[in-house]
Amino acid sequence: METDELKVAWLDLDKRLAQSDRINLALYKDSKVDKARTSLRPLFWGQVLQMLFGIAFIALASLLWMQGPTMPASVLVVGIFVHVYGIAVTAMSGMTLGLIRGIDYAASVVAIQKQLARLRRAYIISGMVAGLPWWLLWVAVLIVLAGLGGGDLVAKAPALLWIALGIGIPGLLGTWWFHRWSHISARPKLAKAVHDSLTGSSLRKAQRVLDEIEQFRTE
Q: Which residues neighbour 144 within 8 Å (Cβ) at sequence distance 6 or greater?
């Protein structure tokens, strides 16, 4: 075989191998992307439940407004707090659901990773909005329920409000302090554990799948 013919044969072989690699990568990516999409389903349904949870608080506050302006001012103020909480939880859940539905799985791995990063931030904020207020929200719910029954828990049991503030405010401050303390560079394992607990298993699984795709591409 002449030298020129040998070069042509090698170039043709390289071209076929490169084409085969692209096909294998595409097939591998498709199968893994399906797995990533499936891993986010629990997160999707969890946000649906959280949205319904927020709507329930909007409904609870609405029942209070239906009682008319004769309600004690303290109950009305607490009712506003409960109503705002319900709206915030519903809105953040809706935003998170929109990001989940908006992921373009046909995009590149880097693009999908950026979309997951935005989803992770929204999910963490959504969880904080839904969870942190409960340091104080539990007593607000009791006050609203008492108000629906025609009672004024703030007037009848003011000690309960002070107990709630005495527990809730230190609880919020302690949560904030622990989060900052855990992210000190000298405690990387603790910081990772806290981050993973906030991120959720569904997002971590999806990220691992994308990492596997990127590793397969670079090998």
A: 60, 61, 64, 75, 78, 79, 82
3-state secondary structure at position 70? coil
Tokens encoding 165: 């503030």
Question: How far is residue 145's CA from residue 166's CA, in Å, rounded to a whole number?
Answer: 21
Place of tokens 């622990």: 178
Residues 6+ apart with CB under 8 A from 21: none
| Alpha helical stretches, state H, the chain | 3-39, 41-65, 73-101, 109-131, 134-148, 153-156, 158-182, 188-199, 201-218
Q: pTM to 2 decimals?
A: 0.76
pLDDT single digits (tens) 98-153: 998 888 877 777 777 788 888 888 888 888 899 889 888 888 888 888 888 877 78
Residue 184 φ/ψ, nearest 5 degrees: -65, 140
- Residue 26 predicted with pLDDT over 90: no
